[in-house]
UniProtKB/TrEMBL annotation:
<protein>
    <submittedName>
        <fullName>Aconitate hydratase, putative</fullName>
    </submittedName>
</protein>
<dbReference type="GO" id="GO:0003994">
    <property type="term" value="F:aconitate hydratase activity"/>
</dbReference>
<dbReference type="GO" id="GO:0005829">
    <property type="term" value="C:cytosol"/>
</dbReference>
<dbReference type="Pfam" id="PF00694">
    <property type="entry name" value="Aconitase_C"/>
</dbReference>
<dbReference type="InterPro" id="IPR015931">
    <property type="entry name" value="Acnase/IPM_dHydase_lsu_aba_1/3"/>
</dbReference>
<keyword id="KW-0411">Iron-sulfur</keyword>
<dbReference type="GO" id="GO:0051539">
    <property type="term" value="F:4 iron, 4 sulfur cluster binding"/>
</dbReference>
<dbReference type="InterPro" id="IPR050926">
    <property type="entry name" value="Aconitase/IPM_isomerase"/>
</dbReference>
<dbReference type="GO" id="GO:0006099">
    <property type="term" value="P:tricarboxylic acid cycle"/>
</dbReference>
<keyword id="KW-0479">Metal-binding</keyword>
<dbReference type="InterPro" id="IPR015928">
    <property type="entry name" value="Aconitase/3IPM_dehydase_swvl"/>
</dbReference>
<dbReference type="GO" id="GO:0046872">
    <property type="term" value="F:metal ion binding"/>
</dbReference>
<dbReference type="InterPro" id="IPR036008">
    <property type="entry name" value="Aconitase_4Fe-4S_dom"/>
</dbReference>
<keyword id="KW-0408">Iron</keyword>
<dbReference type="Pfam" id="PF00330">
    <property type="entry name" value="Aconitase"/>
</dbReference>
<feature type="domain" description="Aconitase/3-isopropylmalate dehydratase large subunit alpha/beta/alpha">
    <location>
        <begin position="8"/>
        <end position="407"/>
    </location>
</feature>
<dbReference type="InterPro" id="IPR001030">
    <property type="entry name" value="Acoase/IPM_deHydtase_lsu_aba"/>
</dbReference>
Length: 648
């Protein structure tokens, strides 16, 4: 039986365990990715390990999230990251050079290698046939220190692509079709591998779009084969020599199956406020639009932007619409400028911003009250835009451009009444300019690390006690995202390296009293529904609640990265054995967990929880390694124990 692409890469990188779905495995990591919002903490964690230099083939640090400089904080973090990158052998992509995913695709990605990134959208690298996985900052810091990455061996979900996309339909519509079919939980525990004749019709950047938003399906990763399109993209970047062909064997099999006939995919749109709330654009045609944003984390490539330029060429953005463009990278912007696209945007009335994440993480571009905002971003969780009760829709660049011109949601296929489909291709040779990348010097040991006053020491957490008597500080429903747990935005993001300060914002939009209540009550618990902690990789969604005293989270189910982050910081991730028990516990109840250490050491998979005179059974689904981390009070404590010969 032949291997699929994912299995080939997994086999080449497996260092522990067996490739049996559900079992814990460890993979060798070739490249790492940090961005500034998660990377400041991750860099501090790496430094706590005391190594002189990173031990991966390539480590890169991008400054793309915290670009606003309203006071010293973000600028201090940039200076810290720049000095640390120099010292430890990390490539530094400067503020304004672009979004990590786009720059990594352009300048660093290598087919067939592994990339671990402190950002859930790291699988954008699927566009190059790289196996890229999003993880918490601490896991990435460990990988930078040369440790393998542990994960539950995923099932491989083969999605056969046939046919060819119709004009005005693009990669974004394919991933929205996946979300329409399978929901934000559909990819949990899986690597999605696209194969079949339709793959050859998709450019590397369309594949990157599909890979990026595999994160919205909850998938561990996404892969595409590395073929002639991959080679063409790498050659156009002047990096053809890193290409290798990576195709599924002709008799490759998959654990799960689906099929998409690309020619049947229609323009789709995700309605507020979940990426899987997908309908055909035609269904909501005519809805008045106030704001359109193209770019940021996804759909910010040359093809995406140039398509928008061509659609806007010689036309005007509708008077009531603010039309923003956030290029994915300096390189994208330079190439759009070189091909005359920039002037088309300006003359049409577009607002062009510096390359970066910007409004995608709530750093500006928040819509007004009740305003409808169409974005080519990957996420539209409630309030993520920065505006409470926002109305954010996710769509392709083609749909975004059509809305910009007509001022109302419009099926982009109607644009053929105005112009021929531009069918923009990626250039055969990009204008390549690495001025925004600082290459680390050979020996960086003499470099002084620069730290500002906002970088505060990492909090210390004790080992897990034997008994826990905790109060339920909050009870929430299904699909709570990390944006709800630990909001981002311009007010909060500058505190990513200051846990005491950022913890004041935990659950701010759901329950503004949460942080005060949690710190007053001492040890606490959170009750959640299905897919708790979906969305971003931000470890602050575990770290900050832990700082406030949260010791246990009991949910119907956890999202992959958040579950690992909870364990990394010593929070017990328990699931209800009987999901109906969720209804029996309410906010304010006291929960007692006894003999915890003995149970966890002894390999117990069921943990009894007493409350209000009753008892429920919860499940602890963790590996041996994770049990040790929980007992130690978190992964950093365990690493310290190991380095100090058993003394914490
Ligand atoms: C996101 O899309 O939510 C982010 C911003 O890329 C995050 C990273 C973060 O929280 O800083 C992610 O998805 O990991």
């Amino acid at each position: 039986m032949g291997d699929n692409v994912a299995m080939k890469i997994l086999k080449e990188h497996l260092v522990e365990g067996k490739l049996v779905p559900g079992q814990e495995i460890a993979l060798r990591i070739d490249q790492t990715l940090l961005q500034d919002a998660t990377g400041t903490m991750a860099m501090l964690e790496f430094m706590a390990m005391g190594l002189p230099r990173v031990k991966v083939e390539l480590a890169a640090q991008y400054v793309d999230h915290n670009l606003l400089q309203t006071d010293n904080k973000n600028a201090d973090d940039h200076a810290f990251l720049t000095s640390a990158a120099q010292k430890f052998g990390v490539y530094l992509s400067k503020p304004g050079n672009g979004v990590s995913h786009q720059v990594s695709l352009e300048r660093f990605g290598v087919p067939g290698t592994t990339l671990l990134g402190a950002d859930s959208h790291t699988p954008t690298a699927a566009g190059l046939g790289q196996l890229a996985i999003g993880a918490g900052g601490l896991d990435v810091a460990l990988a930078m220190a040369g440790h393998p990455f542990h994960l539950t061996c995923p099932r491989i979900w083969g999605v056969k692509l046939t046919g060819q996309l119709q004009p005005w339909v693009s990669g974004k519509d394919v991933i929205l079709e996946m979300l329409r079919r399978h929901s934000v939980k559909g990819g949990v525990g899986k690597i999605i591998e696209y194969y079949g004749p339709g793959v050859a019709t998709l450019s590397a950047t369309d594949r990157a779009t599909i890979g990026n938003m595999g994160a919205e399906l909850g998938a561990t990763s996404t892969v595409f084969p590395s073929d002639q399109h991959t080679l063409a993209f790498l050659k156009a970047q002047g990096r053809g020599e890193v290409w290798r062909e990576l195709l599924p064997d002709p008799d490759a099999t998959y654990d799960d199956h689906d099929e998409i006939d690309l020619s049947q995919v229609v323009p789709l749109i995700a309605c507020p406020s979940s990426p899987d709330n997908v309908v055909p654009v035609s269904e909501i045609e005519g809805l008045k639009v106030d704001q359109v944003i193209v770019g940021s984390s996804v759909n910010s490539s040359f093809r995406d932007l140039m398509t928008v330029c061509r659609i806007l060429d010689g036309r005007k953005v509708a008077p009531g619409v603010a039309f923003h463009i956030n290029p994915g990278s300096r390189q994208v912007l330079e190439n759009v400028v070189a091909q005359g696209g920039f002037i088309m945007l300006l003359l049409a009335g577009g607002q062009v911003h510096q390359p970066g994440c910007l409004g995608c993480i709530g750093m500006g571009q928040a819509p007004g009250t009740n305003q409808v905002s169409l974005r080519t971003f990957p996420r539209n969780f409630p309030g993520r835009s920065g505006t409470k009760e926002d109305r954010v829709y996710l769509c392709s660049p083609e749909t975004a451009a059509a809305a910009g011109i007509f001022g109302v949601v419009t099926d982009p296929r109607k644009l053929s009444d105005l112009l021929f489909w531009p069918a923009v291709q990626n250039p055969e040779q990009y204008l390549v300019d690495d001025a925004g990348i600082i290459v680390p010097p050979e020996g960086g040991s003499a470099v002084e690390i620069v730290t500002g006053p906002n970088i505060v020491p990492f909090p210390e957490f004790p080992a897990l006690p034997d008994q826990l008597d905790v109060e339920v500080i909050i009870k929430v429903g299904d699909n709570i995202s990390t944006d709800s747990i630990m909001p981002a935005g311009n007010k909060v993001l500058p505190f990513r390296s200051n846990i005491p300060a950022i913890s004041k914002f935990v659950f701010e939009q759901v329950d503004p009293e949460f942080a005060d209540r949690a710190s007053q009550k001492g040890d606490g618990a959170v009750i959640g529904g299905e897919n708790y902690g979906q969305g971003s990789s931000r470890e602050h969604a575990a770290l900050a609640p832990r700082y406030l005293g949260i010791r246990v989270k009991i949910a119907k189910g956890f999202a992959r990265i958040h579950r690992s982050n909870l364990i990394n910081f010593g929070i017990l991730p328990l699931t209800f054995k009987n999901k109906e028990d969720y209804d029996r516990i309410k906010q304010g109840d006291r929960l007692q967990l006894t003999n915890l250490r003995e149970l966890i050491q002894g390999g117990a998979t069921e943990i009894p929880v007493k409350f209000n005179g009753g008892e429920i059974l919860t499940q602890l689904t963790v590996s041996e390694r994770e049990r040790e981390e929980l007992l130690a009070g978190g992964l950093l404590n365990k690493v310290k124990e190991e380095t100090n010969g058993g003394q914490s």
